[in-house]
Write a structure and sequence with these properties.
mainly beta; SH3 type barrels; 2 helices
Amino acid sequence: MISAKKINGMRVVTADAFTVGEVDGLEVDQKTWNVTHLDIELSDESLRELGFKKPLLGAIRICLPVSHINKFGDVITLKSDLAHLKGLDACKKSK
């Protein structure tokens, strides 16, 4: 079992080794207590590749469904490449 403290700050990479960003929180289904999404703070390069406009202050976070995750290790590796993340929405929570 991995704690939320250990997940926060972990680097997230695609199957082809592109760094998407870092974990900055998670979403939990309050009925089942299962983690459903990871909030990923996007790197500057990911912002450009995914078509987001870089904010003047702060960062853009996407809500990544846990079904996209291939494995946990020193980094979180996804099952697919960056192109498969283009349809994901920015997280709505405020920091």
